[in-house]
Amino acid sequence: MLETIVSLKLSEVKTYILSVVTAFLISYFGFALIRYFLHQFFKRTSFIEEKKEQTIETVVKNTSRYATLMIVLLVAINRFIDLKQILVAGGVIGIIVGFGAQSAIKDFLYGFFFLFEGQLKKGDFVSINNEQAGTVEDLGFRVVSIRLTDGKLMTVSNGEVRKIINGNVHHRRIFESVIVDFQENPTRIKVLLEELCEELNELHIEYFLRHPHGEIVEPYHYWGLSSLDASPFGFKFSIVGTVHDVHYLKAAQETKFLLAKKLHEADVSLPSVRAVYTKSM
Q1: Which CATH number fits domain 105-168: 3.20.20.140, 3.40.50.10470, 2.30.30.60, 3.40.50.2000?
Q2: Rounded to 5°, angle at Cα 122 from 119 and 125
Q3: Which member of 74, 137, 207, 239 lies 3.0 to 4.6 Å from 147 by CB, making a disulfide possible if both were Cys?
Q4: What are phi and psi of 203, to 5 degrees?
Q5: Is the dihedral of CA 36, 40, 43, 49 positive or negative?
Q6: Phi then psi for 216, rounded to 5 degrees?
Q7: 29's torsion region: left (phi>0), alpha (psi -120 to 50) or beta?
Q8: How far is CA 10 from CA 2, 14, 15, 76, in A?
Q9: What is the per-residue pLDDT across 211-244, written as a single tens digit (0 to 9) for each?
C-alpha cells in the first residue's frame, strides 16, 4: 500500500515538473520564433526606419521575458491554487498590488509612451534629467539603459525620466565656431572658412540630410561673424551644416579636426592670454 502511494506521488511530481518544463519550453521557443520572424520581416522590408525597428525588437525581447515568466508561474501555481478563485478575488488583489506596485505601474506606462510616441529609440544620443549624455542601448517597459560616453552603463526607471534632450531626431546641425586674434584680417578668415566648407561638402557628401527628392537640406557654409563683443579675446567666426543624426558624431569630430588643421596650416593667430608683471620699487 505504501509503495503504491509513493509511486503515485512520484508520478504526480514527474507530471508536475514535466508540465512546468513544457510550459517554459513552449513559451521560450514560441517567443523566440516570434522574435525571429519579426527580425526577418524588418530585414527584408523598409516600411519603418532602422532605429524604430531596433527599438521594437528590443521591447519585444524584454516583454517576452516577462511573459515567459508569467506563463511558467501560472502553470506552476495552478497545481496548488484554483485560478478561478484568484480571478474572483482579483478586485481585492488588484487594490493591494496597486498600492504596492505604484512605481512599477508608472514605469510601465512611461515605457509605453516612450515607445509609441517615439521620444526615445535605440541608438539615440540623449541626456536624461540633465545627467551625463550617452547612447540608448536598451529600452523596455520598465527601464531605459544609457551607455555613457565613458563606457559606463546608466539605468534609469522610466517613471523617473523627467526631461529628455534627444540629439537624434532625424537630423543634427553641426555648428562649429573659432575665435581668432583681433589682429587677424577678418576677410582672410572668411575666405579660409569658405574653403573649408567646400572641402567638407565633398568629404561629407554621404552624411548630409536630404529632401525626399534628394537635394541636400543644408550643406556646410560660412555662417558669419558674431557681434564684436561676443568674446573679449578676439573675433568669433562660425560655420554650419545639417547632417543625418546617425552621422553626427563622426561628422562633428572630422569638422573640428579639419578646422584646426586649416587654421594651423594658414598660421592663423588664436587668442592668447598676456600677463604683465611690474616690479614695485
Answers
A1: 2.30.30.60
A2: 75
A3: 137
A4: -70, -40
A5: negative
A6: -65, 135
A7: alpha
A8: 12, 6, 9, 17
A9: 888 889 899 999 988 877 777 888 999 999 999 8
Residue whose C-alpha cell reads 560655420 in the numeric block: 239
- Count, residues in the chain: 281
Q: What gap in Å lies between CA 223 and CA 207, rounded to an integer?
A: 19
Tell me the C-alpha to C-alpha distance, in Å, between residue 119 and each of 66, 156, 199: 23, 15, 35
Question: pLDDT tens, 96-123?
Answer: 555 555 666 677 777 777 776 677 777 7
Cell 522590408 sits at which residue? 45
CATH of 171-265, one of 3.30.70.20, 3.30.70.100, 3.90.1170.50, 3.40.190.10: 3.30.70.100
Q: Distance between CA 14 and CA 103 in Å, rounded?
A: 39
> Is the whole-model pTM more than 0.85?
no
